[in-house]
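To whoever is on call:

I kicked off a structure prediction for a single chain this morning and the downstream step that reads the tokens threw a length-mismatch warning. I double-checked the sequence; it's 412 residues and nothing unusual in it as far as I can see. Pasting both halves so you can look.
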Amino acid sequence: MNFPFYIARRYLFAKKSTNAINIISAISVVGVAVATMAMIIVLSVFNGFSSLVGSLFTHFDPQLKVIPVEGKTVAADDTMLVAIRQMPEVLVATDCVEDMALAVYEGKQQMVTIMGVDDNFRKQTQIDAILYGDGTFELHDGDLQYGIPGIKLAQDIGMLANWGGWLAIYAPTREGQLDMSNPQGGFSVDSLLSPGCVFAVNQNKYDGAYIITSTAFARRLFDQQGCVSSLLLKLKEPRQTDAVKKEIRTMTQGRFRVLDRYEQQADTFRIMQIEKFLAYIFLTFILIVASFNIVGSLSMLIIDKKDDVQTLRNMGATDRQVAGIFMFEGRLIAVIGAVAGLIIGLILCVLQQQYGLVKLGKSSGSFIVDAYPLSIRLSDIILVFVTVVAISWLAVWYPVRYLSRRLLRNEK
């Protein structure tokens, strides 16, 4: 058995001559445990919000999105795109034509993003789950073209879920020069009817700017006949996403970018990761402060055990072994605090997941979810434990080494 560890373990749990040392040691353990508990809970909350946002985007974003590297559009019958559509891993392939336009309804106008998609878009995503109103997902009926706006966009320009009349869409013409005597001649104009519903992704990027319509309407409006701005893919096996993405990138030889759901919303998730990292840094500083309690506890223990140190030296213990006793004492306090904090933190996280103990607001339904969402990840558990142990061990290394050397020097 490791001699310094054996003595350190006895010192930790044995009664000291001064009760204050026991109290300070307990406070040290509690301090490390509370800091550990806070870290695991806060990181789990950030994971929960990230998963919540990701789940919202799954109703609208495809599993993979293929876009040209150069230019806004590419021919729909491009040999590369044809080959991608025919891949055995692909379950649904949807053409998409997307660009900016001006929407005008009963005198109110707003810049919007027209997103023209094929009829199989409802198989591509979970769009039906986020539709509100009496209508269904319908993009056209013969020559009539329908548009499904985001719920916030509909509110901003005064439309209901089942809005009446025509929604005029203006897009700049691609060819020719603008005649200032006839400004309207520089725009391509078309109109949309309501299918009786709007969509709500609960993300302003989509809800406040997007109108979903047919590819035929978008191609006619933007003069992009036979072209697509992106190809949306749904795979037979979601687990193959990374492999298929890599295969398409190799196949297209750099002509196309292939984005998964996280890459399609890279800015959103990057901000959330930065926020999580900053929270981790701030909590690490709190942990550093809590670690100084261990130093205080060990300082008093070294003074209290100076007679024992002399006895151990007389029995043949080396100076390094004596210093190791107090080093192990600090490490034991750190590990016990870390383990206790992780256990308590994980229990609280599970209770929050099951029962929603901490609410986001006083009234139910004010937010997308009523309680703070949490997601426990093994990587965070490992990160927190390693961080707590490393900082605690580093915090006690120099003070213990200095104090033990000074005590041994005085004994000599």
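Update from on-call: the warning came from a stale cache, not from the record. Cleared it. Sanity check on the structure: The first strand starts at residue 64 and ends at 68.
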